[in-house]
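Changelog note: in this version the structure field was regenerated for every chain. One regenerated record is shown below for reference.
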Amino acid sequence: MTPRRVLASILLAGLVGIVAVVPAAVAQLSPIGGVPREAEPAGKTRAKPFRLGIVATARPEAAVERVDPFRRRLAEVLDGAVAVTPFPDEAAVIGALVAGRIDYAPLSAVGYATASRLCGCVEPLAAPRAADRAPGWFAILLVAADGGIASVDDLAGRRLAIASNEAVGTGRLPSMLLERAGLTGARGPRRIETDGPAEALQALLDGRADAAVVWSSLDGDPQTGWSRGTLADFVAAGRVEAARVRMVWSSPILPLGPHTVRGALDEPTKRRLREMLIELDADPDVYEAIEPAASGGFVRVGAPAYRPFVDLLTPPGEAETPPETTGSAPKG
């Protein structure tokens, strides 16, 4: 799995746009396609179907057909009808979830944070894992091994290569976390914006920067740059030896986007859905129908795991307790 696919569920280039668009989507929902309600027999009341929302940027009918194995599994678990409605983008899905027009949707991490900020009415059930079953990824800060930088405290006035804020997961989010770690004002480095983590690491290697923000699994052998990430790609391509750089900071673990439900859903139903997801990789066809990119199975996840993403959307005056960050490289 490529880094692009691993990060696909959180790198929403339109973060600002999604926050601006969703309130309008709540007021004026217009899902494309969907499952029409059949006429009710006279004198008979049918139970309302459980409503699953999905993103279908093109060919909504094909998207509904693709997720049908998952829809049928949901129907079995819930012992009732399940309707699938495709939406043209994630903003429309979030709008429908916030407005109570759907009950369940797979969201990106930023999408979940947006819904949480808008209404506080959503709850994450479980999050998919990458192919190596890592439950998330980390933003990390690398420096030259012989550059004289031992911790983030040594970065004051130094040059920091980092992706632009248009890249949510590798630019905007780590910038916020580093600021929460104290790298602001006189203690802050001089920012050098790049097109992405690979360019940031290359700037460090070329001597154009003193530190670089990249991403990593922080799993596996550090001598190979760990199992996945920017450094791992450079080492595998023969562009650098891992010993040339050293990590001096990492973010908390950042999970992939969760499967999300309305918080008002009853607890037994939430429990059944969560258990279904945890066991779903035992049935590859059903799993692939709803999670074609992250193939490592699901892991239980709660709202606190997405606190960095929620804080990213929270105006400074409203910020609550900052997320836990590490001021130095984690042990191991």
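Spot check on this record: Residues 15-27 form the longest helix (13 residues). The domain at 3-37+47-132+255-301 is CATH 3.40.190.10 (D-Maltodextrin-Binding Protein; domain 2).
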